[in-house]
């Protein structure tokens, strides 16, 4: 099965998601720069559906040293960055000044590709290119039993 078919269906299993991820091209850091709208890619992970309920917007890559790893849309429609530490600790959304992550080229599952590294959490988001305006991402969280998948679409 191809990415588009599974994406339109809205869910798959982890094994199939990794098969898709492994077939995709690596991503260069320069192509990550910009704002990306996120969408969950359901695989049965405990976080499936959580970000959508919280109005997750996506991510913003400013440069190699400054990435807003979590953007949310407020009730007034404004987009704001959130500090990922309280969020991942299941406390609450805390607005952040931004730049709570950075990006590097890293090897993951046999390919060197663009990766977002959280500043204060043991989490790496690895990216592969679906096309010039869409990425498949995998959140690799140290100690997690299962990887979390998501899709990013470039905001023009």
Automatic annotation (TrEMBL):
InterPro entries assigned to the protein according to its UniProt record, in alphabetical order: DUF4334, GXWXG_dom
UniProt superkingdom: Bacteria
Domain DUF4334 intervals: 99-154
Protein name: DUF4334 domain-containing protein
Chain ranges of the GXWXG domain: 19-77
């Amino acid at each position: 099965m191809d990415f588009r078919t599974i994406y339109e269906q809205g869910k798959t299993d982890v094994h199939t998601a990794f098969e898709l991820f492994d077939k995709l091209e690596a991503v260069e850091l320069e192509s990550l720069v910009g704002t990306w709208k996120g969408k969950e890619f359901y695989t049965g992970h405990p976080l499936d559906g959580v970000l959508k309920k919280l109005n997750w917007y996506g991510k913003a890559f400013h440069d190699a040293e400054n990435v807003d790893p979590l953007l949310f849309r407020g009730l007034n429609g404004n987009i704001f960055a959130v500090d990922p530490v309280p969020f991942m600790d299941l406390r609450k959304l805390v607005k952040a000044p931004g730049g709570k992550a950075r990006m590097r080229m890293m090897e993951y599952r046999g390919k060197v590709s663009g990766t977002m590294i959280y500043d204060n959490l043991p989490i790496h988001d690895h990216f592969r290119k679906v096309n010039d305006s869409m990425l498949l991402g995998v959140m690799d969280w140290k100690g997690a039993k299962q990887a979390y998948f998501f899709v990013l679409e470039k905001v023009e």
